[in-house]
Each structure stands twice: as C-alpha cells, then as structure tokens.
Amino acid sequence: MGWPSAVGPTDKPSSFLKKLQQGHPLPTPTANSIVALMDQNLWTAVDQYLADHLVTPDAHLDQALAANATAGLPSIDVSPTQGKFLHLIARIHGARRVLEIGTLGGYSTLWLARALPPDGQLVTLELNPKHAVVAASNLQRAGLSSLVEIRVGPALDSLASLHAEHPEPFDLIFIDADKPNNPNYLDWALKLARPGTVILTDNVIRDGAIIRSDSTDPSVLGTRALFDKIAAHPRLDATAIQTVGVKGYDGFALAIVKP
Question: Which domains does the chain have, with CATH numbers?
Fold first, then answer.
C-alpha cells in the first residue's frame, strides 16, 4: 500500500503521532481509521485461540448471547476474553459490591456476578426497558438473579437516586454506557466509591480516534474529557490498555481510588 508523504512508515512513533494530532491524513487506503492498516482477521483468530484455551465453554453465557441476538440487541457486548478479564479483576480485588453502568443484555453482568461471594451484590443500570427484560431473563436462567439488581432509566438519574440512598460504597465500578457521558459517570462513580475502589471504563481508544484533538465525534470528545479528568484528579491513580480482538481496536481505562 502507498503512504502519503505527510505520514509515512519511516516516521518515528512520536513524529507519526504528532502529525496525526495536527490533522495530517492517515496512510491510504483509509483517511478515517488506523484499523484498516491492521489485520482484523488475525485479531479475531487469536481471540478465538485464547478463548478456546482460557475460557471454559459455558451454556449460560452462550445462551445469553443467543438471546441478545434473537431480541435484536446491538452486538456490542464485551468479548468472552474481555468478560473473563472483568471476572478475574473482580475476583482478584475481592469485590463484594459491584456497580455496572450499562447492562445491555447482561453478558458482562453475568461475568461480574459470578465473581461475587454469596453475600455480594451487583447493581446494574440500563436505559432501555427492552434490554433490561432480556438481561433479567439471562440472569434468571443462570441462577444469578438474587445477586443482581437491574435499575431501568437514564443512568445519570439512576446514579443520583442510588447516591441519595446512601449505599455502602462499591468495590468495583464498570462504566460501559453512552460515551459522551463518561466524565459524568466518573463523577458519580467517585461519589459511590471508597479508597481502594477499582473503576474500569470500556471502549476508551475508539479505533485510535482519541488522539485526534480536532474530532467532533461526541463519543471521542466524551472519552478525551474522561482522560483529562482522570489525569487531573487527585483521588485517582490510573492507566489504560489498548486492545485488539474480535471487537476490533479499542481498550480499557483502569483506575483505583487513592486512600
């Protein structure tokens, strides 16, 4: 493939990034995404290899994905390896109380709920009543309904109501809802957290678009504002990891609330 003179393969990474940030065109054949320069087929094949080796086949998880598809829910669940990652983070942290912002059909909810002890609780927030019904069915089928409370409505309203109840702080908070509101979700997460709470945010790389200061995409703007807020917040220590796989090119932000 050809490379325009503005941005080429001989550029050092720092120079390449600087040119992208300044609005220079990406290498052909795309002007919109770095993803086209990479091999989605390879990422998907490696993801399948990892899942085959590290994710035990599970009828309830498979049935949840099938039910979501049958109900016409968007296919934006975490992947099996990402679900296992969430599950392990919750177990490693010894989480007893989990807050999930963005339920969809409950696939990630199942992974997180299975990490809880018998006296644990997961509160999950979903805007769409149809999605919430599908999630509730998936959780009931998996025998997890007693551990999970689904709250339906705009997440910011649900978070305000939850905070007004003065709940016990959450140990782990997973943010995976509408991206323009990411900074607002972080604000509420901090109000519902304690020192040591882990806050995970999904889809923070946006196919690499987060480096584009000229972006007008609301999801990119919300995510950039999230990173600005995390970086400046005195109560947070954080990092972010880029990921590739069956879901494409994206990543997680991981933060912990300081003492």
Answer: 1-31 (no CATH), 40-257 (3.40.50.150)
